[in-house]
Design goal:
Number of strands: 0
Strand content: under 5%
Number of helices: 12
Order of helices and strands: HHHHHHHHHHHH
Length: 198
């Protein structure tokens, strides 16, 4: 998934573009899928409404990335009736766009082990993301994960652009489109939101 710091930065960017009633609950929602995921691989999949249990584990990296988040399943299981759920939904939408539009599986030669190198890039941008977006990176399991150097799989400017783009997404419009879609069409139907979010 996108790193915890990136999620928090997107939450901060979103709050500059949209109003919520309870900021603390919204940020708790942004954090929730990854915090729940600390309980183990299965719980992480459940927290992200993943398709992996349906597809099995003998899949290509591209198929795996596509299956990490299922927004249709989330919206047919839960309601966005609080700022917590809005933050939760933002986290899932962010992960979906990150793994389906920002990251290209070909860059990892379709190798699940090579994909883990992405975590090194997360640590290389962490401090700069925290500084730029005013992220409160205390009291979380990943607060001290930062290393010097430049990321290899994306540039700092590219990750800033991704954060800003996701912070502008109209979540309620995405919600409506997903709910009006079918299990096989929702991905295609929400593509324009990311492509046009500049």
């Amino acid at each position: 998934m996108a790193s915890f710091v990136i999620h928090l930065a997107i939450g901060e960017a979103y709050l500059k573009n949209y109003k919520v009633k309870n900021r603390a609950d919204f940020i708790k929602g942004v954090k929730a899928p990854d915090i729940l995921g600390l309980q183990g691989f299965v719980q992480k999949g459940l927290a992200h409404f993943s398709d992996m249990e349906e597809r099995g584990y003998d899949v290509t990296l591209a198929q795996s990335l596509r299956a990490k988040v299922n927004l249709y399943r989330y919206l047919h299981s839960r309601q966005i009736d609080s700022d917590y759920e809005l933050g939760y939904f933002l986290h899932l939408v962010t992960d979906y766009y990150f793994f389906n539009y920002f990251i290209n599986a070909d860059e990892f030669h379709n190798d699940h082990h090579e994909f883990k190198n992405l975590y090194e890039d997360y640590s290389k941008v962490a401090d700069r993301v925290v500084l730029k977006y005013g992220v409160d990176n205390t009291n979380n399991p990943w607060s001290n994960i930062s290393t010097p150097g430049e990321p290899k799989l994306f540039t700092l400017d590219e990750i800033f652009e991704f954060i800003d783009k996701c912070g502008k997404l109209n979540l309620m419009n995405i919600r409506e489109v997903v709910l009006e879609s079918t299990p096989s069409t929702w991905r295609e139907n929400i593509e324009p939101f990311y492509i046009k979010a500049d």
